[in-house]
Amino acid sequence: MQIDAHKRSLGEVLLQGQHIIPRYQRRYAWEPQNIRDFWNDITTSGTPHFLGSMVTSGITTAPREVIDGQQRLTTAIISLCVIRDLYSENGQELRVTGITEYLEFRDRNGELNYRLKNKDQSSASRLNDNIILPPERRNQAPEFDNDALEMTAYKEFDSLARKALAGEKNVVQKLDEIRDSILAAEVVYINVEDRKNAFTIFETLNDRGKSLTVMDLVKNMLFAEIPSGDEDSSERSWSRILQAIDDSRFEGINPDSFLYYAWNSRFNPNDPKSDIVEQARLRRSISQKIDSSESRDSTSGQIIEDLHTDARIIACLNDTLNSDGSALVWKDISSSWRRDKFDDVCEHLYGILVSGSMQPIPLLISLMRAYVCEERKLSRKQLLNFLRIIERFQFRWSIAQKGSTSSIRRLYRQAASAISARKSSSDVDQALTDFTAAALKIDATDIQFKDGIHRLSYSRTRSKDLFKIRHILTRIEKSYSSTKLDFGKGASVEHLKGLEGRSEATARNSWIFKLGNLAIIPSDTNSKLPAEFSEKSSELRKFINDEDEVLSSALANKTWGPEMANLRLKAISDRSLDIWPKVDAN
Questions:
Q1: Cα dihedral 311/315/317/323 (nearest 10)
Q2: Which parts of the sequence belong to the GmrSD restriction endonucleases N-terminal domain (predicted)?
């Protein structure tokens, strides 16, 4: 392995030529505090500040791929743009020209190039249009984004620089000092011509202090196997994986957890017992798959494409939850999308996801991948049969407040693996039979489920259970023979006995926040209702179902209190058993 490692200044690094940031790198992520730390390190030391190591790959005469150092290089470019613009404000055009040499250059053909080039177009636009363009031209750029983190960093640098210049007699001299401090900052610059060895160096260097994430390690391992020149498609896919994870609003979803769910959604012959591949074993498991293959590079590329598919599924599941079960979110991913093929599917998916548990995610990825992405597609009937059982089991489990155990995680992992490995329709049926039998053994009891419903509460300061409560009330309303509500226009949760002036800490008020005192009504009606039950009874009767007997009687009499609320809570929990029966019930 030929390694070129030298201590170099940032100025030397930038003037060396062009550095390429590949698509698989995460987007610029430095926050204002990181910028302030960088500024203090650069400007307060009497000697050049040491920025650590940078790792690149490529021959001397060609642009070099940045394996490690993207964030620092981007930050250096942003800081130099701030200094350039301040020079311009002070009429120092020669100095503007001088600093521009570190930002862009002309190649042998006389064409203008950026010193730092992002292969990801959106990242390139955020840096080039937001930062490198002179201020007077930025607002004219089509991709200008005033809220991008690159622009946030620019504004923070600008603010710090202007504070440093305040009161200075010689502003230009002070700017020179700041410029020179930035360009003098030092790195250990490591270049390895062989791309695979460059990843090895990066991993070794970063296996100290703050450890690399599992996703980082897996990325390095996969891209190290892909030949230089063939990585473009894989880089695009990896970039989209990270974007899908960034956009997800699932609580607890990050690159490592995504990798855990995605890998556990697939059958792996190296794990014949279909045991859970825990976080600590993910990299080893993926490495074993590569090692056991006939073509390491094609297997690595296929793993990246598979993860991209799973990231798209995760994105659609996330959108299903946030859209209250809209079928439209699957339109772009399914080549044969029709509303009737997804409406009831999404209703059940929402019923699973609204529980707030991530435990079913590997199985949901596997099922939806088989339904929308794979050639041997899962039938709609088989998918619905599976989702109905998952919904019953998971919602009861979550409401009963049973936590994550190895049993439930293994249950979902084994079913996901079975769906992934299926060779025939009968394999799917067997997977459902096995899942149902195993779920029955650990299912929440009816008493545990009802107790969980009785514990649910909602107030302005306790909103954690709101979506579960709204889902229960909605499903109960839909179970009646008819309804007065139009769910297409949205519904919200109303406290029948108002909250005004009532302390949540007082035991006698606890019933006010429970399900018995809650009802769903049209969203546009909620805010217009009077506070007192007797005053809003007439309006509520327009929306409350006649089969909600306790509440209907109270509305007729315009009286409401804890005894009636508790009776209604019991009725709600009893009816919930019919909607979410144990998994062995028909």
A1: 180
A2: 15-223
